[in-house]
Amino acid sequence: MAFTSIAAKSDSARSVGSFEALSWLFMRASAVLLLVLVLGHFVIMHVVTGVDQVNYSFVAARFATPFWRSYDLLTLLLGLAHGLNGTRIVIDDYVHSRRWRVFWMSGLYGVGLFLTIVGSLVILTFQPQA
């Protein structure tokens, strides 16, 4: 009997257009896009360019173009959103007390907001020193 109610709850939670269904779809799409972005970053930073050549002037030259700033910002924001959403799902699955869930979700969103702001500021406001 309990199995039936869990299955019914699961089906209703994942109905088309629900937040959980969109969250599920986002996790799949963002994983594929992140795979491409992170592998591209890895190839550029560690294969095409030797590790010994990656220094301040390399990063400054890279951030001189809007493409690389956008690329890195997209990687940052998508990676944070993907990770925060996954952590939100883990909290929903394992924290059963309403008070603890509010506590952990508040902490999660606080840390996520902080990292998003700081990371975006670094990428968007970077000015190379002469």
Could you describe the 3D structure shown?
- With 130 residues, the protein is an all-alpha fold.
- It has a single domain, classed as Fumarate reductase/succinate dehydrogenase, transmembrane subunit (3 helical TM bundles of succinate and fumarate reductases, Up-down Bundle).
- The protein has five helices and no strands.
- Helix 2 crosses helix 4 and helix 4 packs antiparallel against helix 5.
- The chain is elongated, with a radius of gyration of 20 Å.
- The N terminus is likely disordered.
What is the compact description of this entry?
With 130 residues, the chain is mainly α. It has helices at residues 2-13, 19-48, 56-62, 66-94, 98-125. It has one domain: 3 helical TM bundles of succinate and fumarate reductases (Up-down Bundle), CATH 1.20.1300.10.
Going by CATH, the homologous superfamily would be: Fumarate reductase/succinate dehydrogenase, transmembrane subunit
Within the CATH hierarchy, at the fold level, what is the topology? Answer: 3 helical TM bundles of succinate and fumarate reductases
Give the overall form: elongated
Give Rg in angstroms. Answer: 20 Å
* Count of spatially separate domains: 1
